[in-house]
Amino acid sequence: MLEFDGLRKSFGSNQVLSGVTFAVAPGSMFGFCGANGSGKTTTMRIAMGLVRAEAGEVRWHGRPLDGEVRRRIGYMPEERGLYPKMKVAEQVAYFARLHGLDSGAAARAATEWVDRLGLGERRGDPVEKLSLGNQQRVQLAAALVSRPEMLILDEPFSGLDPVGVDALAEALLEQCRAGVPVLFSSHQLDLVERLCDSVGILARGEMVAVGTVEQLRRQEGGRLLRVVVPDAPPHWAAELPGLRVVSEQAGDTLLDLDGGADDQAVLAAALATGRVTHFAWREPTLVELFREAVAVPTAPGVAA
């Protein structure tokens, strides 16, 4: 188990992390979500020993991470840490040797990952000659090449085209099937929802939601009711009892009903405004759950 326990960190008067706690089980993928500046990168840097926490610790198999354990982590920082003049295959093999592979094993592993991530034809090119997306693939190959015991990846899908996204997703799923815990941050919540076993949402330095997507849905009340009434006036549902308007745009309204609300009464109200072209329950997406989780609470008596 990769455990983050009570991490606290401030930069001057800015409290970046306030008791951040979560865990990533072996063979599972954990999606770390949060707005820019929420503390995701700081959390990962603490795990890698690049930033010192003021309180709390990161543990692997119940023991605090040390330099030896960190050598067995496949880490990808948000900022590219590549040598621009080195050739692609040489670069990846170099990182494999830094993690302890001998030269022969490093060369073989570099060839495997360069090919798997779609860089086979560019293996002899200097990194600086690659597009930003292909440089991202090199950085990913460098994180994966050493057969890591765990993966910590900061925005690994950023800049990748759909083919690159699919190649990386399959590589990460393969690592999970081999028992490797995978922690990655991303703003691409559709990918997080599709790939991850568990999700953590960080806001204002605190973990405001942790669990599977299904658990987060239950915490937020479960299903949402989508009603499409093309000719309805704006805010037609705002005064109906027992519900909350999640979103409304051009007659397409998403509603959250409490346990005592009557969906048939909502349908009748919608029909009173015009022709209803869609009326159905659906599960909230991770994007919607994220918006709910990171919303700033409104003080009592203050209008939202």
UniProtKB/TrEMBL annotation:
This is ATP-binding cassette domain-containing protein. Residues 2-229 form the ABC transporter domain. Keywords: Antibiotic resistance, ATP-binding, Nucleotide-binding, Transport. Belongs to the ABC transporter superfamily. PROSITE patterns: ABC_TRANSPORTER_1 (PS00211), ABC_TRANSPORTER_2 (PS50893). It is found in: Cell membrane. InterPro entries: AAA+_ATPase, ABC_transporter-like_ATP-bd, ABC_transporter-like_CS, ABC_transporter_ATP-binding, DrrA1/2-like_C, P-loop_NTPase. One of its GO terms (molecular function) is ATP binding.
